[in-house]
Amino acid sequence: MELAEYRLLMEKYSSLTTQIRREAHALHDSVNQTYGQGHPYGFHLDMVVASVWKYGHEVCVAEEDFLPLVFGAYYHDSIEDARLTYNDVVEAACRLMSRQQAVVAAEIVYALTNDKGRTRSERAGENYYRGIRQTPYAPFVKLADRLANTTYSCSQTNSDNLHMKEVYRREMPHFLSAIDAHSDDARYRLPAKMTEALQTLVSGS
Fold first, then answer.
1. DSSP readout, 62-107?
2. pTM for the model
């Protein structure tokens, strides 16, 4: 999609995207979830969606996909961290868009929900990454999530964030390979400027 067309969609649906943001923030506040050094979890959600605003035109192929993409980004942790079920996500999305669009949004959220596991590698194993690669827009939203987390970790100096920066650096080759669907379909695309920004962060350059 051309950037100019995408920006028109951002303007056209601004009231709905504001509502999505407000409800996603409230959802995570309701379970007392925070981020980093005492930030409300909405701080992280806004960082993720910042990539949707900046790079979304590179992956969004149609107007009807715009709201599902934004919703998927704001709600990407809602099953994993905020106690929603898949059907809850569909229901929440249906209040703001058609059911067909709501299913697209919910599939993004479901794909980004970690598997059950005792360790980080078990929670994000091959089955998890396969689901991301097979779901439209999920690779992009996962990349936006990782870029947000890495940006935050690299901006802090406490031991937890320095540790996570090293984890992200070590995982980088596998992570990018694991979410790359190698598809000509733009909905599965990993924008080059996003991957470059991520690699720059972990390299410290």
1. SGGGHHHHHHHHHTTTHHHHS---HHHHHHHHHTTS-HHHHHHHHH
2. 0.95
Tell whether the torsion through CA atoms of 192, 194, 198 and 203 is positive or negative. positive
Cα separation, 58 vs 189, whole angstroms = 8
Do 144 and 194 contact (CB within 8 A), yes or no? yes
Kindly list the structural domains of the chain, giving each domain's residue range(s) and its CATH number in brackets, ordered by start: 3-203 (1.10.3210.10)
Q: Is there a contact between 2 and 45 (Cβ–Cβ < 8 Å)?
A: no
How far from each other are the two terminal CA atoms of the chain, in whole angstroms? 31
pLDDT digits over 174-204, tens only? 999 999 999 999 999 999 999 999 999 988 7
Smallest CA-to-CA distance from 56 within 108, 112, 125 is with: 108
